[in-house]
Specification:
The complex is a heterodimer. Chain A is mainly alpha-helical. Chain A contains 3 helices and no strands. The C terminus of chain B is likely disordered. In chain B, helix 1 runs antiparallel to helix 2 and helix 2 runs antiparallel to helix 3. Helix content of chain B is about 70%, strand content about 0%. The chains are: A mainly alpha, B mainly alpha.
Chain lengths: ~100, ~130
């Protein structure tokens, strides 16, 4: 690459991908280990947000603006999943 | 110039996401972990989407990124509040160093998990509110 600018962004995007990957791993450890079900729900919620961040970093790294659409959909689905899990938890807590 | 700003925002966003993952793994109880999972990750994803908008510099991409940022700012507190309320009502134990629990005796069920969780806690019952 002759121009310096795009290379810098690509490098930063690749580094960001690695960092978000580490964060995903840590959240996954909490998902597996979480002592209670709400802990797992929190970890799953965080994994959804981290996936949106990972997709946006990948969009920058590969110069594909179309990748932002999956990020939007993932954000919507992640919120719906969290709300559904919270409703389920509340119902289960009341029944016990 | 915009490349540098975009790269810096990407790094800041990734740093806050790493912080969120670390907090969710290392913090002591569910309600404290929820802070890391909600606030740090919202800030991180906001920075990264801003970096995307600056990198592509088009109306369509900027609109979508702004939409996702606004969506996260609205839904992250709502989701965290719902999880925390459900978990508190279900009797998830608090950290033993908790110093304030204003809902104690109001929403908490009288199950053994709840009484065990609040037995050693130094928090006092809030005046004027009697436990059921």
């Amino acid at each position: 690459m002759s121009h310096d600018g795009p290379e810098l962004t690509e490098m930063a995007a690749n580094l960001a991908l690695a960092m978000v990957g580490v964060a995903l791993f840590l959240a996954f450890v909490r998902l597996v280990r979480g002592p209670t079900l709400p802990d797992r729900v929190v970890a799953l919620d965080l994994i959804g947000v981290l996936a949106v961040g990972m997709i946006s970093a990948y969009a920058v790294a590969t110069d594909q603006p179309a990748l932002l659409d999956p990020a939007t959909v993932l954000a919507l689905v992640g919120f719906l999943g969290t709300v559904a899990f919270a409703g389920y938890l509340e119902r289960r807590g009341r029944d016990e | 110039m915009s490349e540098q700003i975009s790269a810096a925002l990407l790094m800041v966003g990734a740093f806050f996401m790493l912080l969120a993952g670390l907090g969710v793994l290392r913090l002591p109880d569910l309600f404290i972990r929820l802070q890391a999972a909600t606030k740090a990750s919202t800030l991180g994803v906001g920075c990264m989407l801003l970096a995307v908008a600056i990198h592509f510099q088009g109306l369509a991409v900027t609109t979508r990124a702004a939409l996702v940022i606004a969506f996260f700012c609205v839904t992250a507190p709502v989701g965290a509040h719902m999880i925390a309320r459900a978990a508190y009502a279900a009797g998830v134990p608090l950290w033993e160093g908790t110093i304030a629990d204003e809902l104690r005796g109001r929403r908490r069920p009288s199950g053994e998990l709840a009484s065990e969780a609040t037995a050693e806690s130094p928090a006092q019952t809030v005046e004027g509110r009697e436990p059921p």
